[in-house]
Structure formats: structure tokens, C-alpha cells
Description:
Layout: H1 10-22, H2 25-39
Helix pairs in contact: 1-2
Amino acid sequence: xxxxxxxxxxxxxxxxxxxxxxxxxxxxxxxxxxxxxxxxxxxxxxxxxxxxx
Length: 53
């Protein structure tokens, strides 16, 4: 199995920090759903690696 590296954009990092500081469970679930959607397996590309949108 290929190794994967997860890199958070600055906006994602700030969102996580805000969720943790506010202890906002609903917002945490929304963020997790968005993150899982981005982590789903995507078909390969002829040009190689393609970063998240």
C-alpha cells in the first residue's frame, strides 16, 4: 500500500484551531466530513501526483 501524506492548508489549520478552542462539536463533524471526502481514493493521473483542490 502506498504511503500518503496529509498536508493542511493554512485555512484548514485555522479552522481546526477554532474548533478546538470553541469546543464546537457540530463544526468538528462538518470539518471531518469534508476532510474524509478529500481523502477518498482518487484515480491516478497520467502526470503523476495531483494535490487536493
